[in-house]
Amino acid sequence: MLHHRFIKVATCVVGILIASSAVITSTVAKPAGSSKTIPGMPAILDPNDIYASDRPDQFSPVVKDFPQRVYVPNTLSNTVTVIDPKTFKILRVVRVGREPQHVVPSWDLKTLWVNNDLGNTLTPIDPKTGHFGATVYVHDPYNLYFTPDGKHAVVMASKDHQLVFRDPHTMKIQKTVPVACAGVNHADWSADGRTFVVSCEFSSSILLVDTVKMKVLKQAWIPRTHLARTMSGAMPMPQDVKISPDGKTYYIADMMSDGVWLMNSDPKNFGKFKYLHTGSGAHGLYVMRDSKSLLITNRGEGSVSVMRFSDHKLLARWKIPGGGSPDMGGISADGKQFWVSGRYNGDVYVFDTTSGKVLAKIKVGGGPHGLCIYPQPGRYSLGHTGILR
Hints:
- By secondary structure, the chain is mostly beta strands.
- The chain is built from two helices and 29 strands.
- The protein has one domain (4-374): Methylamine Dehydrogenase, Chain H (7 Propeller), CATH 2.130.10.10.
- 4% of the residues lie in helices and 41% in strands.
- Strands 4, 5, 6, 7 and 8 form a five-stranded antiparallel beta sheet that branches. Strands 3-2-1-29 form a four-stranded antiparallel beta sheet, with no helix packed on it.
């Protein structure tokens, strides 16, 4: 994500961030924390793997009869392109609200929500029938998440500098939480569901949020130590957030530092980082279906890095022939393909997850962004383009 309307905001906070980042250390502390989950959250099936329900084709009964489709929101065309992943053919193109950013599965897996950011609406999709429903008014819905207990939707109101907790079905506001940063955009939850980490793209920082109290607990700034870009005034730009299968480590993609920051998930160690270089414009993070490795899209160089969780070793870098701009997407239900949008090329790329080869480039609308392949394995959704557990 890089909205032109935030560039001035990012520039204004540079001085503050330089001073703040100086107090952040770069070591990863030993994991710790409570194993007791929040009330209403589905039980953890495997304490060593919170993604144990995401194995190939391990569908919930809710979605087992849904047709496999890929939904691509085109930010510049104000449309959603629907693709058949078996044939790579476009089935239809549907007009939605202004600047659709992401297509997001609901907590109960029954609805997909198109985030029409500048249109200030959400468009519901019935994934069983493919029907696009009537829009729901929601102000500044850049991104959308759901708490692990299913009690709240959380709108990342980036322009408004807010986290807005809403009813997960009606989207009626439950609580508005102002944040002291610019560009809230991505998030992921601790294994016990008690806290979640939010990235602030234009303030070079992250937030720690209490799920039950709906309250920001802490803010930490990303170090400039490994900033790869040489442009004047460049600052770290945190993007996607993902937690490890064992729940001990958060990974935070940093588009300007060209890599991923590793942070211990214990709230006591919030803000202590270790850096891993992956590639230019590190952006999206995706856990493979065997929970052994993480895919990292490098939007600036047209590649995808493969990182092994056990030792953080980079196993491979998949390159797009002729270049590209891989942004957001998802792994197919059988785990054999990785689908990702080409943000600045108007394409969707399909990778073979075994060989790393590009199987297809599919031309879609302008500015394709938060692509969602659906249905996916898992019991419930935390939102974004499909964080299922």
